[in-house]
Amino acid sequence: MLTLSLYNYAEMLALIASIIFYKNLFKTPFLILIPYLLMTVAAELTGNYLGIHHRYKENVNLFNITTVIEFVIFYFLFYKNINSAVLKNIILYAMPLYVVLAAVNQLFIQGFNNFHTYTMLVGTVFIIVFVFFYFYEAFSDKEPLSLPKEPMFWISIGLFLFYLGDFTYNLMQPYFIKNHMQKESFHLFHIINNNLIIFEYICFSIAIFVCSNNRLASKLQS
Amino acid sequence: MQQQPFSFEAAIIAITIVFLILGAFIVMIVLVYRKRRNLHLLEKLNLQSNYKHELLKAQLEIQEQTLTNIGREIHDNIGQVLSFVKLSLNPAGGSLEQLQQKMHDSRELVAKAINDLRDLSKSLNVQYFAHLGLLKAIETEVERMNKSGLLNLNINIKGTPYELGEQCELVLFRIFQEALNNSLKHADARNFTINLQFNTETFNLTLADDGQGFTVADKLGSFNGSGLKNIESRAALIGAVATINSMPGKGCAISLQLNHHISQTNVN
């Protein structure tokens, strides 16, 4: 029997929001959130199932693939929502570079049967840097801009806080695995991590809602 | 296997929490800064829209004034000339020589009327002012007024004239028209002096009449003083400082001082 955590429900909530408002996501880069959320929910449920049945290797294999796809999808969203040609180019080159790095790591360094913590760390750093790109543009935009009405702002803060919180964990994970982490610490990290996932997916749901609101506003204007 | 000491792990967790607080703080800064920037941008947009509105108003007023002048000119000048020609061409009596003289005079008068009409039609062109520039526009007005005999206008120019920018010149010309109108309609003035001083850093425009004058504070405080208030607010719009000096029986002098560089920045 699958036991779902609160963060699983947060992910499902975002998926349901994206399906309900799918029409408003059309013709926007945020349409990619639908397959992304479908993949995430499916991966989490499958991972849960595999965990219960102690099929840890398959579980790691599954997340080794989905996390790489996740990062590429986030980079794509930043690429589409940043205006500066220079920053856009950096993100554009970062996408294939990340895939290559992850492939090299999973094939030759950490192996496909171990979780790719090194490239998770690289992916996290990329995300944090891209969030700063977005914030920099939001700072310097010469037109009046209401950030809470920008879907990308919500996605950015969701990703920013999630990956900031996850950064030290990803950084120290190989060390902790080697030296056996204390149960209490592991529990604390899990609490932080789970809450950050909930926060991240609530932000994604708000982004989807804002997207549909903007669409409605522009319809009313026209 | 040895377990990691809890203090080390606690430190890592503390760092994570610090990271999160820092992240939340950054998000807050971005939000607050953006809100302030939005307010500033909206204020700027408002100012720009007010500026454009005032410019448009000044432009319309100039056109209105031009039409009034043209109407007066047609009535007082061209109308008179053509009436005189009509009388001259009256076939009643006279020798051949007299008739030839009359024909000659009439031809000259018609030619003058055509010239006057050509000048007037030029001033009906919307781009006329932009084409002329401030100095030439004022000189044309001086010439026109002096010809009409309603007021004696004198113009003094100091320094080498330079352009102040179309919008700035438009506002200055409208101020000049307003002051001239005031002198004509309310001041009962005979002379009107225009001083234009083109310095390296500043441009000074002084418009003075020898009319009946008034108490500045009283005038600015009353409903009738809207013309003077307009002069002050329009001067401020282009970054100029307007000073109005007047006393009953002592005429009126309006001085405008404009920092050439500031005016360019304001327009931008």
TrEMBL record, chain A:
UniProt keyword annotation of Transmembrane helix present: yes
Keywords: Membrane, Transmembrane, Transmembrane helix
Membrane spanning stretches: 30-50, 62-78, 90-109, 115-139, 151-171, 191-211
Protein name: Uncharacterized protein
From TrEMBL, chain B:
Presence of the UniProt keyword Coiled coil in the record: no
A GO term, aspect molecular function: ATP binding
Record bears the keyword Phosphoprotein: yes
Record PROSITE patterns: HIS_KIN
Keywords assigned by UniProt, alphabetized: ATP-binding, Kinase, Membrane, Nucleotide-binding, Phosphoprotein, Transferase, Transmembrane, Transmembrane helix, Two-component regulatory system
GO cellular component: membrane
Listed transmembrane segments: 12-33
Catalytic reactions on record: ATP + protein L-histidine = ADP + protein N-phospho-L-histidine
Name of one Pfam family that matches: HATPase_c
EC number: 2.7.13.3
Histidine kinase domain: residues covered: 69-262
InterPro entries listed in its UniProt record: HATPase_C_sf (IPR036890), HATPase_dom (IPR003594), His_kinase_dom (IPR005467), Sensor_HK_TwoCompSys (IPR050482), Sig_transdc_His_kin_sub3_dim/P (IPR011712)
Descriptive protein name: histidine kinase
